[in-house]
Amino acid sequence: MSMPTLLSWPALLYTLMHRPYIFVFLGAFLTIGIVNRGLKNTFLFLTLGFGIAYLSEFTSIRWAFPYGLYHYRYENLPGELLLWGVPLWDSLSYSFLAYAAYEYGGWLAPPHPGPLPKRERESLLPLGEKVRMRGRIFLAALLMTALDIVVDPLAVRGDRWFLGDIFYYPNGGTYFGVPLSNFTGWFLVALSIIGVYSWLSQPTQARRPVPLPWLGPLFYWGILGFNFMITAYLKEWKLLACGLSLHLAILGAITRIAPTFRGFPCRQNLGPSECLPPSSQDKPDDPTKTGDSSRSPRPNPS
């Protein structure tokens, strides 16, 4: 099978006109990224996301790694940007999907707070900062894979909505037409994108407060909501129920397991996303337990 290439300004314009939703999400990613991470780190994420995703698609349509074998239907992609058989807008979408998962994971599991007194540092989760960072990378990769569990079965049904019938798995798949190897591949690619970004951006991101941390979950659930609406439009109720159940279960599990997730009081001077467990909050002294008679309540003479 030939792997066509089409790179031109008319092809770019045609792709913009036929895939506007991709560029709306891309614009949202760039805006949120620049606000929360700065211009340099946002374009670093964009470059890594696109580059790693393109390489993964390039190898999968030829050698079935990492997603398993699939093929594009090039007759249904006339006039769109292609590079050696891969639609460039598709690889571009990985950048904002990975970024949404990265910010959402950061909101669920806030980074280690900035400089704190020793007593308060020791009261946090007893894990080293490097271990915590690796855990957050793993969580973000898991969240990106969970996004694809909603997105990919919908894409397989692209002939029934405006995506189009643009690709297929020659051997089918067990999860609503998608092979399980696809989700393994997404996890590996997500781990690569977010892991490399975290390593390269670490010097500038260390303990940097995120100005608007709530934009991360808003963006993530905005992407989910877009896909859930299309799923409902197609009346794929089982697929919709599975996707909703999965994401609500993940949200519930994470917020219950980690003691430094949402719900704990925050120190206002540390920024909006650095929260401490209740045991580390300063409490007023109870004079009845200190033994200090000068501070104990005096009896009321009557």
Describe the structure.
By secondary structure, the chain is an all-alpha fold. The chain contains ten helices and four strands, in the order αααβββαααβαααα. Helix content is 59%, strand content 3%. β2 (82-83) and β3 (86-87) form a beta hairpin. The protein has one domain. Mean pLDDT is 83; it is low at 112-127 and 260-283. The strands form two sheets. The chain has a two-stranded antiparallel sheet. The chain has a two-stranded antiparallel ribbon with strand order 2-3.
Strand-and-helix sequence, N→C? HHHEEEHHHEHHHH
Number of strands: 4
Any idea what the radius of gyration is? 24 Å
Helical stretch tally: 10
Structural class: mainly alpha
Explain the layout of strands and helices.
Blueprint: H1 9-18, H2 20-37, H3 39-63, E1 71-72, E2 82-83, E3 86-87, H4 88-108, H5 118-122, H6 129-156, E4 167-168, H7 180-205, H8 215-233, H9 237-257, H10 287-290
Helix pairs in contact: 2-3, 2-4, 2-8, 3-4, 3-7, 4-6, 4-8, 6-7, 6-8, 6-9
For this entry, give a set of tags.
single chain, 302 residues, mainly alpha, two-stranded antiparallel sheet, two-stranded antiparallel ribbon, 59% helix, globular
Summarize this entry quickly.
With 302 residues, the protein is mainly α. It is built from 10 helices and 4 strands, in the order αααβββαααβαααα. It has one domain (9-113, 122-282).
